[in-house]
Amino acid sequence: MKKDSYKLPKNLYYNKDYSWVKIEGDTAIVGIIEPAAKRVKEFVFIMLPKKGKKIKIGETYVSLEAIKWSGHLSSPVSGEIIDVNESLFDNPSKINKKPYDSWIMKVKLDNKEQIKKLYKADDIIKWLKEKMGD
After folding, report:
1. 33-44 confidence digits (pLDDT tens)
2. Contact criterion met (CB below 8 Å) for 33 and 132
3. CA separation (Å) from 49 to 20, 93, 132?
4. What residues are paired with 60 via a beta bridge?
5. pTM value?
6. Cβ(20)–Cβ(13) under 8 Å?
7. From CA 119, how far away is CA 81, in angstroms rounded?
8. How far apart, in whole angstroms, are the C-alpha atoms of residue 2 and residue 129?
9. How far is the C-alpha of 1 from the C-alpha of 133, rounded, in Å?
């Protein structure tokens, strides 16, 4: 993987499970970071979270499958899932093509203070390089 592939948008927050978070008021928009999405080439299946469900930090929010990989990602935030990107169900590979446009869920935050436990781009890159072996 090229060194440049670790350029992450500075306006987002990140967790140590390959997720990005965009904050809009008291809502967190959550998706998968580009380095992880590009690594698996193409997602072929996605199990989306349920709208209206309460979720806690660390709970699985999405399950994904690619040709040679499958896994689950843990939620970077706690709150109520108020929206889900249903368009990904029929076309999960959108995440691989445009990961920062292909959000998975929107969560009304229980407490906005939890954002302080997330990482900014510069702070997560070292961890990301270690985890991805580059």
Report:
1. 999 998 888 999
2. no
3. 16, 17, 26
4. 74
5. 0.92
6. yes
7. 21
8. 11
9. 9
**pLDDT tens digits for range 107-124:** 999 999 999 999 999 899
Nearest to 18 by CA among 132, 98, 111: 132
Mean pLDDT of 66-70: 91
Three-state secondary structure readout of the chain:
CCHHHHCCCCCCEECCCCEEEEEECCEEEEEECHHHHHHCCCEEEEECCCCCCEECCCCEEEEEEECCEEEEEECCCCEEEEEECCHHHHCCCHHHHCCCCCCCEEEEECCHHHHHHCECHHHHHHHHHHHHCC
User: Is 3.40.50.300 the CATH classification of the domain at 8-110?
Assistant: no
